[in-house]
Amino acid sequence: MSATPPLFLSFKHNSTRGGTEVIKCKAAVAWESNKPLVIEEIEVAPPEANEIRVKIVTTGLCHTDLYQLYDNKHPDALPTVLGHEGAGIVESVGPGVTEFQPGDKVIPLPISQCGECRFCKSGRSNHCDEGWWSQRPDIMNSAVTRFTCRGKKVYQFMGTSTFSEYTVVHKNDLAKIDAAAPLDKVFLFGCAVSTGYGAAINSAQVTPGSTCAVFGLGAVGLAAVMGCRNAGAKKIFAVDINPDKFDRAKALGATDTINPKDYDKPVSQVLADLTNGGVDFSIECTGNVEVMRSAFEACVKGWGVSVVVGYTDLHDFASRPAQLISGRTWKGSLWGGYRPKDGVADLGKALLAKRLNLEEFISHKMTLNEVNDAIELMKKGQWYASSLFIIHDL
Ligand code: CXF
Ligand code: ZN
Known about the structure:
The protein is built from twelve helices and 18 strands. The chain has helices at 63-71, 118-122, 132-135, 183-186, 192-204, 219-230, 246-251, 267-274, 289-297, 321-325, 340-352, 371-379, and strands spanning 23-30, 38-44, 51-59, 80-81, 86-93, 105-108, 147-149, 152-156, 166-170, 174-177, 211-215, 235-239, 256-258, 281-284, 305-308, 329-332, 362-367, 386-390. The longest helix has 13 residues, at 192-204. The radius of gyration is 21 Å and the shape is globular. The protein binds cyclohexylformamide (CXF) and zinc ion (ZN).
């Protein structure tokens, strides 16, 4: 990877004064859609009531960051700092924060868990009524921002903005993680691993001895494969049109790999032929509506469950009612179905129990200055798993 020359070697700031001062730091700012991010000096205001200022140590790049940059043309979305899969350390806390203190290791959360709303209290859903996902899903940022740059307000993508040396998040949007947690791995809990692993464990509820198919082997799909394996599936078909992705999928538990381009019949038919009528569970991790249909129709009649994970709000999708009436279930999964603070705690325990192979998810290691190179790789489909951007020294 050719390194872009660093634009800023370091920034001086007052990080030890209890969060009363503005921090000037480096961030990758998206000023316009379809244009490279610009490494800028931004101002990060001190945390206000119920907020926490976090020093970001590591972050990944996710397809949903690119969805915002290239597909989501909402006029109020920009400028913004992208990034929603990160890990860091609490720098300071605002009034009313008791759950966190400076020095805590934390994961910023792209969806909220207030603990008080109808949905949090129900115990049946992770669709908290607070935060951008509930209140501004089209704009994909929180109305409140603590960032400015060149005299302009800069929005915080998904309320997190991990492509910055510092960010400020609401207490509903932050989870504590064990002091021993490796920040160069657990940033994956912010999106890819929670989303894919939880889709298998919580949303599909994969059962021991079952047959599963995972469509799309990016980081989310790989995590879904790992979830199917840990749930005890006996067959896990990993499906992708890029065979370069198969080795990682096998390392995480795929028993079989399928490239739909190798067949002259639909992949749903290929899977039906291999499984005596269809898989028990399918998990779609591409955001492509044609793939969603294939995954659904690859399920067995009677009890097959198909879970849509890949995010898009741009296209309709379709199948035939007879497919549902034949006993299949088609459902969606947000952030793996976890209430996010609880999810980070669960995933932390699974990591401690050595049930998660997080090293398989890191395909590239870069610095924030190289973020545009990473975006190009992702656009070209050469982003074989996730990534690790080191924002501050580990
Ligand atoms: C996102 C999808 C939109 C809601 C927050 C999480 N998942 C992956 O990037
Ligand atoms: Zn994501």
